Amino acid sequence: MNPRTIRTRLRTAAALTLLPLLALTACGSGTGSGGTAAVGAQGSPAPTDDPVAAVREVPSVAALLPADVRKAGTLRVGSSIGFPPGAYYPNGTDKAPAGQDIDLADAVAKVLGVKLERQDASFETILPALGSGKYDFGTGNFGVTSERLKTIDFVTYINDGQGFAVKKGNTARLSKVTDLTQLCGLTIGTGAGTTFEATLTAQKGVCAAVGKKPYDVKVYSENAATLTALQQGRIDVIMSTINGLRYQAAQPASQTTFLGEFHRLDVGFAFKKGSPLTKAFQAAVNELIKDGTYARILAKWGTSASAIDASRINPPEHR
Q1: Cβ neighbours of 40 (radius 10 Å)
Q2: pLDDT tens, 195-206?
C-alpha cells in the first residue's frame, strides 16, 4: 500500500468518527454555496414530515417545459450530497438522500410533472458537467456569483451565503469576521471548488497590503475532513455556508462556534448557459412559494430565515 493510500484511509477514518455530528435532525444549515462530496452517515434520522407528498402537477407551469422534455418525462440532476440540512444520507449511501435541496428539487419536479434521475456527484464536478450535457441541472447549494454567471444559468430558490466558525472556546482570537484582514496569520479550511475557496484566493493579498502575515488556505473535498482538521488544530477557522455552520454549531457534539454571516449569496438550481429549462423552473419555484409548500419545506429543515419572496433567473451577485 503506498503512502498516499495510507494517508487517505487514515483521513477517512478520522472523518467517519465525526459523521454523527454532521447528520443529526436538522435545525438550520445547508451544503455549501459550496457543498462537499458525499459522505455516508448511518442512523441519523431526517425530520418525518413530508410537505412534498401533497404537491401535484400544475399544467400551466409544466407547459413551459420544452416538448421533448415533456415527452421524455424525466430530468437528470447532478446532486452534491454533503451534510444536513441541504442534502445528506440519513440512513447510509445505499438509501435515499434527504434535505432541503432534495425536497425542493423533488417538489419542483412534481409541479412540472416529470421524474428526476438523480446522480450523486462531487460538488466541484457538477457545474463543468452541465455544459457537456451530462446533467440537465445541478443542485449543491450553488451560490450565484458574477464569475459563475459567465457560463452558468441560475434559478434561485434560497438566500444563503458565506460564514465562519471556530472550535468552541477559541473565540478570543476571532469572535466575528467582518473583514478578511481579521484572518491574517491564521489557517482557514474550506471546500474544494467553492465560492469560499474563490473568495479567499482572490483576496489573498489583503494581509500584505496592511503589513500583516498572510492567511493560509487548506482545501478539503469532504466537510467531515474539514471539521476533523478544526478539532485537531490543523486549521484555525472554517469558511462555509451560513446555514451549514449555524446548523453544525447547534449540535453540542460538534464543539464549534458560528461566527456569523460574512457575505450573503443567492443560491439556485444550476443549468448550462442558455438552457430552455430556466423559465419552467422559475415558475415552479414561484408556484411552491405561492401555495405554501416552499415555506413548509424550509420550516422542516430550519432554514426559514433564508427564504426568498420570488425566484429569479440570473440575478446579479450580492455586493
Answers
A1: 15
A2: 899 999 999 999
